[in-house]
């Protein structure tokens, strides 16, 4: 089977979880909605092209190998005027001048992962809208600037997409040979997440017994309305020795 494997690394990343009130939590690693959004940006697919986003999210099975880094919780204050009927402020200047008398402060707590690195593997389905070579070319020459969950979180290393042949996701990660390595601190802990079947990651019964099933709300329903449904994943933690 063919896989496309690439790397996501930056000093800060934020992989959106369910947002409740002023709290904006982050998953330890990239969600499928975030990864496919990044791939869509690289291909030049705009947010309003809903059908293309749906095809992209359905067309590939994903696994990640994550060194989760450290959790950073940031306290934000955002000053903005409240809404006035159908009137819309077009610029930040409009907000500060035209809406001066209506300014209020929004408080929020936002989570980030610092010094985290993730390897992503994609396996195409029979109806995948793009070949793996086309995705690799787009990641090497992105149309829109890719980022790690938030625009304030740029990539700090090349993604180095590679098409590899392997029997499963574990084999695909083993076959991935980036030129430059060891960005994240090597504490030995790697978190693996994958969708599909238990055996899609590896054939080791011992690892199957250590694998958990979890639910992540990152199955795309609508990119324009930011709606996502639950998705079942497998989760396996491994510790490299030596």
From TrEMBL:
GO biological process, one term: defense response to virus
Presence of keyword Acetylation: no
Stored InterPro entries: CRISPR-assoc_prot_Cas5 (IPR021124), CRISPR-assoc_prot_Cas5_N (IPR013422), CRISPR-assoc_prot_CasD (IPR010147)
Gene Ontology MF term list: RNA binding
Alphabetically ordered keywords of this record: Antiviral defense
Matches recorded under Pfam families: Cas_Cas5d (PF09704)
Name of the protein in question: CRISPR-associated Cas5 family protein
Organism annotation: Gallaecimonas xiamenensis 3-C-1
Phylogenetic lineage: Bacteria, Pseudomonadati, Pseudomonadota, Gammaproteobacteria, Enterobacterales
